[in-house]
């Protein structure tokens, strides 16, 4: 497990997020539920959560202008994920690049269902707060596109005039979020494999620069 946050997360997400908080109150969850899609250590997970919260503050997040919270403390994330899953074609998830890469590393059939459905949880994280913009690196662009597709699908299936005639509220249920991709640092490559991106879930710390690395590193 990574030491709180990598340089790639800083350049691809946190810099944009900090800037965004100066213009509009923003939300960000510490999304550590994704780590249980792979083997993990409970104590390391707790420490990484605290470290990441501290890094948010150290990097300039003003909690008077932003709401930062632990994802697992808000049950609505998982509840919305389940509702979205009911409208998600499984073929959409099987096409996700990160699922194919990580499931191959896990041995194909040994990959967990949660690894397959993780993008739906990410969509719930986004759509729950009616997000207008989402800061993402290039590696997460496909996941955001899925969130947009799901929002449009649910709006079509359960919104609109046809449901208003049946007693529903009609109209759009979810906002369609737009990506905020940094012009610099949207994709940072691994230090050990120039063909792969710098990844927080890579087993070796040598493949990335962690914000909590010592000066000697």
Automatic annotation (TrEMBL):
InterPro entries the UniProt entry points to: aa-tRNA-synth_Ic, Rossmann-like_a/b/a_fold, Trp-tRNA-ligase, Trp-tRNA_synthetase
Entry's Gene Ontology BP terms: tryptophanyl-tRNA aminoacylation
UniProt keyword list: Aminoacyl-tRNA synthetase, ATP-binding, Ligase, Nucleotide-binding, Protein biosynthesis, Signal
A GO term, aspect molecular function: ATP binding
Entry superkingdom: Eukaryota
GO annotations of cellular component type: chloroplast; mitochondrion
Database matches in SUPFAM superfamilies: Nucleotidylyl transferase
Signal peptide boundaries: 1-23
Tagged with keyword ATP-binding: yes
Gene3D superfamilies listed in its UniProt record: HUPs (3.40.50.620)
EC numbers, comma separated: 6.1.1.2
PANTHER family (alphabetical): TRYPTOPHAN--TRNA LIGASE, MITOCHONDRIAL
Family: Belongs to the class-I aminoacyl-tRNA synthetase family.
Protein name in UniProt: tryptophan--tRNA ligase
Organism whose genome encodes this protein: Brassica cretica (Mustard)
